Every structure is written in structure tokens, then in C-alpha cells.
Amino acid sequence: MNLDKTFQALASRPRREILAYLSELELTTSELAERFGLSAPTISRHLSLLESAGLVSSERQGQRVLYRLNRDNLVNSLTGFAFELCPVGGPLKRESSRLATVRDKGK
Questions:
Q1: Largest CA distance in the chain
Q2: Which residues, including other chains, have CB under 8 Å from residue 60's CB and lie 6 or more apart?
Q3: Cβ 76 vs Cβ 93: under 8 Å
Q4: Where are the alpha helices (DSSP H) in the chain?
């Protein structure tokens, strides 16, 4: 998971609004463009960045491509970032990572 890509994606107000729309239903590029009053290519570029960051995913259904929020990726990205900032969480996360590495080597 690349936090830089996540925060780059979240830095744009239209992309955050797209995530809000996708939080409850799947939508196509055209449906999003209608809601925002933007062109389909503009929405498509925003969706591409969100998809590259792992925050949304798409599924082709015939002629339509539906986009949906990847809740787990968004939550994991933000939680990972919070752990790095937290004076207690950061060291615990690093210790957990070291323990996982030791456990994997022991298998």
C-alpha cells in the first residue's frame, strides 16, 4: 500500500466527493459526471487516480463500468498513517512487524 498515492488521491476535493458518493452505491463515470457537472473524461481521470491508489475498484458489466469504494483499503491506509503518527502506535506496529517476520522465518 502506497501512502503517497493515497494522500495524493485524497488531496483533491472532487476525488473526496467521489469517494463519498461511492460510499453507498456503485456508479458509472457518466452517473458521476452528471452529479458533479463535470465531463466524463475529467471524472475518468479522477477515478483512475483513485483506482491507482487502491481506493476504488471497477467492474465491467456489459457496456457499463461500475466503480465502488474499497473500504478496507481506505481504512487500512488511514489507520497505517495514524499508527505512524501515534507515539505509541508506531513502535507497536514496528514490533508487530518484526514479530511477524520472525514467525514467518520459523515456519
A1: 56
A2: 66
A3: no
A4: 3-10, 13-22, 29-36, 40-52, 71-85, 89-106
Q: Which of 96, 91, 16 is nearest to 49 (CA)?
A: 16
* Residue range 52-66, pLDDT digits in tens: 999 999 999 999 999
C-alpha cell at position 9: 488521491
Whether the per-residue pLDDT at 1 is higher than 60: the answer is no
How many Å apart are CA 46 and CA 106, to the nearest integer? 44
Locate 46 and state its grid cell.
479522477
Per the CB < 8 A criterion, the answer to whether 66 and 27 are in contact is yes
**Reduced to 3 states, what is the DSSP secondary structure of residue 70?**
coil
What is the DSSP code (8-state) at residue 1? Answer: -
84-95 core/surface letters (b: 16 or more CB in 10 A; e: else): eeeeeeeeebee
The verdict on pTM exceeding 0.85 is no
